[in-house]
Amino acid sequence: MNADVSQPVRLRVNGEQREAQAPSTRTLVDLLRYDLGLTGTKEACGVGVCGACTIMLDGRMVASCIVLAVQADGAEIKTIEGIGDAEHLDPVQESFIRNGGFQCGICTPGQIVAARALLDEIPSPTEDQIKEWMMGNLCRCTGYYQIIDSIKDAAGQAKA
Amino acid sequence: MQPFSFHRPTSLDETFSLLEQHGDEARMIAGGTALVVMMKQSLFTAEHLISLDRVPGLSGIRGEADGLHIGALTRHRELEMSPVVRSAAPFLAEVYSHVATVRIRNQATVGGGLAHADPNQDPPAAFITLEARVKLVSRNGERLVPVAELFSDYYETVIQPGELLTEVIVPPVAPGTRTAYLKFLPRTEDDYATVAVGATAQMQGGVVQKLKVALIAAAPTALSATVVEDQLVGKSVTPAAIRQAAEAVEAIVDPLDDFRGSSSYKRDMAVVFTRRALERVLQDGA
Predict the structure, then answer these.
(1) Contact present, B222 and B128 (Cβ < 8 Å)
(2) Which residues pair with B216 in a beta bridge?
(3) How far apart are CA A91 and CA A6, in angstroms?
(4) How many structural domains are present in chain A?
(5) At what angle do helices B263-282 and B239-247 cross, to 10 degrees?
(6) Is residue A159 over pLDDT 80?
(7) Which CATH superfamily is domain B179-282 in?
(8) Which regions of chain B carry the CATH code 3.30.465.10?
(9) Tally of CA atoms within 13 A in the half-sphere of A140 that contains its CB
(10) Are residues A65 and A96 in the same domain?
(11) Which residues contact B262 (CB under 8 A, 6 or more apart)?
(12) Residue B32 and residue A49: Cβ atoms within 8 Å?
């Protein structure tokens, strides 16, 4: 058995160059949370199904719980901390507040990152496109309608 | 997760050297969507993990005279959205759109999925019915294997030690080819199928010229249902002939009991969904 030797992982996170020593078994979500202190990203299911750990990796929306940190060495990462700030919320965040797009909040960072990624790729999505894209961002509180409303609102569309 | 050494070769030559050096103790990783989950659950361990993502030339899609050449490291989403694929083989893009979620399709790779050989995965339904082949490359040369003959058992393939799946080649799709992919999903849209059936067909004057049928999640491997094809090719299509041909899958399926249905239920559904897929590709207006 190999010793779990740490190796350097260099990332550009939310526009800032970061580096951590990580064992090969470290997942990307754990590296972000425990090594870099970016606890906005959550881990829930741990198997890539629930969407709580959604981040952007080199411009692609991925589940950071099933990416090894060493796989991401050299990558460009965007997390929830890179979307808006306390004074200037992203329009998606404003819209989730306005439309009740969250209740307990545990899934919300993943929902916001996914919704932002959707609107970056498809600025005016249809309801079907929203549903297809957001499938796999599980929420056990809202029943999803308010999330869909939030995204439509953020895209500048009327509610259904 | 069991500790391992992580390697990131930057050439095919270096990859083959690592495979030679570490032999049975080495495994390859591409997107990792399947492998990392299995490692977290201790269902899979390796002393050495060789990442292919920095090996040049393994990614991307080219349209050539002999068909589409899809690099093994091409991500599912890239294939699904590719204008080249959507124009030359829209059925392939359609089947890929049924895999899990956008988030997974953004990370999982075409070659990684095929080498993983999970019998529940959708893409072989398209590759088998479009008569695609994979290119397997080793230090000693290369060979082409039909996707229909790639899988040997649950999570097992005919890929030999020291061999690497580098691309999938999808031959040109004949004009007028009709296609169907029916995925039975009684639970959620992003689930694996209870059973799924892919079919492609060419018809002329009500007679079946060519027919390919594949079943997913119905046996230890994706199945090429030649028993169905043999009953219908060269024949005129009737509802009775379709029904009878669909019943032939009962003899080749071998589904597992699980929370998506009992083995006997899935066996029945395999017949039903095969019949519906045949109706789609063989009957006008179906």
Answers:
(1) yes
(2) B196
(3) 39
(4) 2
(5) 150
(6) no
(7) CO dehydrogenase flavoprotein, C-terminal domain (3.30.390.50)
(8) 61-170
(9) 6
(10) no
(11) none
(12) no
Question: Mind listing the pLDDT tens digit for each residue in A78-133?
Answer: 999 999 998 999 999 999 999 999 999 999 999 999 999 999 999 999 999 999 99
Report the interhelical angle of A127-134 vs A108-121 (nearest 10°).
130
CATH code: domain B61-170 is 3.30.465.10
Contacts of A24 in chain B (CB under 8 A): 3-6, 49
Pairing relationship of beta strands B141-146 and B133-138 according to DSSP bridges: antiparallel
Collect all residues of chain B within an 8 Å Cβ-Cβ radius of residue A135.
101-102, 189-190
Does residue A112 lie within any of the structural domains? Answer: yes
Altogether, the residues listed in chain A come to a count of 160
| Residues A62 and A102 reside in one and the same domain | no
Q: Nearest by CB to A133, which of B3, B53, B102?
A: B102
Q: Residue A52 is part of a domain; what is its CATH number?
A: 3.10.20.30
B127/B148 Cα distance (integer angstroms): 8
Alpha helix (H) residue ranges in B101-165? 102-105, 110-116, 123-129
All residues at 6 or more sequence positions from B195 whose CB lies less than 8 Å from its CB, including other chains: B184, B215, B216, B217, B218, B253, B255, B266, B269, B270, B273
Q: The complex's ipTM?
A: 0.94
Copy the structure tokens of residue B43: 């269902």
Record: contact A135-B1, CB cut-off 8 A: no
CA angle B19-B22-B26, nearest 5°? 70
Give CATH for domain B5-51: 3.30.43.10
Rounded to 5°, angle at Cα A135 from A85 and B78: 90
Q: Where are the beta strands (DSSP E) in B65-105?
A: 67-71
B204-226 residue pLDDT tens: 999 999 999 999 999 999 999 99
**Interface residues from chain A to B (CB-CB < 8 Å):** 1-5, 7, 23-25, 27, 46-49, 51, 54, 57, 60-63, 66-68, 70-71, 73, 114, 132-133, 135-136
Task: Write out the residue range of the structural domain in which residue A120 sits.
Answer: 91-154
